[in-house]
Design goal:
Length: 203
């Protein structure tokens, strides 16, 4: 089946997920997104079509990311079958705006603080224990809401707090402030999610 790609590359999992951060990982980056986040780090780029049966993965784990992968739901389901045929495991990174809960693999669901209506009234209540809920914090004023979300979801799914990272950043006091807040508020099972690939400036 044809799938619309931006990129396919080998790297390591820079962020926490069901198969662990830091693991060698094949990435399939799909084209197109239905949101327009202010901190989007996905270049628009030229897309191309590939046949899912022709894609080869060199790592044991494959990350299907975007853009928003679920915009190509049928092709993603077929891609997951091809990945399984190659005896690899997969996870999906999604922005949570399209129901992902029928996907036969774990998902990292990015809770988009800048689209509150879409999130609060969306599919997030259906999040599964195999998924990871990720909240990117870009401003300390968001910490109280982070705590509210954590209270609602801490028993349902692993909860990631991700400080927003900019390439070239040298002052990490923001990271420490988030950590101190979580400690002070007793949010002990928050997973502190560094984006290691960005710190190392690799794909
Ligand atoms: S959901 Fe992801 S890919 Fe889409 S605009 Fe936001 S950051 Fe970019």
């Amino acid at each position: 089946m044809q799938i619309r790609l931006l990129d396919q590359f080998e790297s390591f999992s820079g962020e926490s997920n069901f198969f662990q951060q830091g693991r060698k990982c094949s990435f399939v980056r799909l084209h197109n997104c239905n949101l327009n986040c202010a901190f989007c780090d996905t270049p628009e780029g030229e897309y191309y079509f590939a046949n899912t049966e022709d894609l080869v993965f060199n790592s044991d784990v494959v990350c299907i990311t975007g853009g928003e992968p679920l915009l190509q739901e049928e092709a993603v389901l077929d891609l997951l079958k091809q990945i399984r045929k190659q005896k690899k495991q997969a996870y999906i990174e999604t922005n949570g705006s399209i129901d992902w809960t029928d996907m036969p693999c774990p998902c990292v669901v990015d809770y988009k603080l800048e689209f509150p209506d879409l999130m609060v009234n969306g599919f997030i209540k259906k999040i599964r224990a195999i998924d990871f809920m990720k909240v990117v914090v870009s401003d300390l004023s968001q910490l109280n809401f982070l705590k509210t979300l954590w209270k609602d979801f801490k028993e349902k799914t692993p909860f990631l707090s991700s400080p927003c990272f900019c390439i070239g950043m040298t002052d990490f006091s923001f990271y420490k402030d988030i950590n101190s807040f979580c400690e002070a508020e007793g949010m002990h099972n928050v997973i502190y999610n560094f984006q290691l690939h960005k710190l190392l400036n690799v794909k």
